[in-house]
Design goal:
Blueprint lengths: L2 E6 L2 E7 L24 E6 L10 E2 L7 E2 L3
Antiparallel strand pairs: 1-2, 1-3, 4-5
Length: about 70
């Protein structure tokens, strides 16, 4: 099956290992409280069985629109 797991500072934010073969794109989301000025370790694990695949990690807050997190 396809899937993704997102871990921030050792805390699992999203853990979804489900077949997505019928969906061309899909989104996994989670919530965590972060402190301004602090750095965080972000780990993304993903698996795609067949065909092309891409992963994009974004973040947002109540006052900041979605921004891509670059590796």
């Amino acid at each position: 099956s396809d899937g993704v797991k997102i871990i921030v500072n050792g805390q699992t934010i999203s853990d979804n290992w489900t077949s997505t073969a019928k969906e061309p794109t899909w989104t996994n989301a989670g919530t965590i409280v972060l402190t301004k000025g602090q750095t965080y370790d972000i780990k993304v694990e993903y698996q795609h069985i067949t065909g092309n695949a891409a992963v994009k990690v974004v973040w947002s807050s109540l006052s900041i629109p979605e921004e891509v997190i670059e590796p």
